Amino acid sequence: MSVTADSATLPSMSFWTNLPPSFLVLAPMEDVTDLVFRRLVCDHGEPDVLMTEFTSADLLCSPRADRALERLQVYPGELNRRPLVAQIWGANPVTLGRAARLCSDLGFAGIDINMGCPVRKISKKGACSALIRFPALAAELIRAVQENAQGLPVSVKTRIGWSEPETEAWCGHLLEQNLDALTIHGRTAAQKSEGPADWGEIAKVVRLRNTMGVPTRIIGNGDANRDNEERLFVESGVDGIMVGRGIFQDLGLFSKKDYCPFLTWPEHTKLELLQRHVKDHWETWKGHKDYEKLKKFFKNYTQGFKGALELRARLMETHDHVTSLKVLNDWAGKKKS
Known about the structure:
The chain is α/β, with parallel strands linked by helices. It has two domains: 7-249, TIM Barrel; 265-336, no CATH class. The chain has 14 helices and nine strands. It has helices at 35-42, 57-60, 65-69, 93-105, 120-123, 135-148, 167-175, 199-212, 229-236, 246-249, 267-285, 295-301, 308-316, 321-336, and strands spanning 23-26, 49-51, 55-56, 84-89, 110-115, 154-159, 181-185, 217-221, 240-243. An eight-stranded parallel beta barrel has the order 1-2-4-5-6-7-8-9, surrounded by five helices. It is globular and about 65 Å long.
């Protein structure tokens, strides 16, 4: 790993310290938070911070780096719009350090290390949530990123434990690593997305941070939505809340004024947005990303109006962008006739 003599002492250019109270973050989500979806979300209510899909440091440092760089693509002007953080993962300090330097060169506002993904094929490699069981390696990885981030703030996203909550020990260890921000998903790795997120455990991290007297911003994650975010802020004391699956139910969740729940939006508005999503996906990726991944979004748009289930069923039978756009055009024509 190439580290300049003074890289470890570069002052952190941390945007985290300048965020408003009770800030909101769009969670990094696999096959979801690409540049197409991020732009769509921000056009209907911008979060205070956004994150990329999580990106393999090993792949970024391999002959197949182009595949990984797709996950770090941005649209024109995005880096000047809101802080956009590159999320990376891995278990090798050398490649994680190189990936951090690359992300810094690409102009991201910060770098986040994924230490929470519970997917077995990832944790089997000793990365992401598996690092909960290897705290010394986790610290080494954080140090490698900090030394190569060229002054960018470094954060971690993790969970409250591996198979059982071990919040104080694990999160206390992370708070000793001079992180700019720490996101806590209120479930163990074993839970994956099952059962309610434990915001009581997240509140423990806030109290631990306060006791230790470190400046790390604490972000809570898990089951947050527009209806409960104010209560979660008050009860947990977190500085920020990260929203993941909640955005699927409410595309306008981050709007700051004139808020109207997505379920009540007019049918034509929802379907125009879906058409835009499909078109942007095709024009951006040109087949480099699997069309089938788009289907996870169809339920978002096809709800709350007469015939929504029928339209959704038709869309789920499609296998390419052209066919789904034809289905939408035929539906719109049928409505007008």
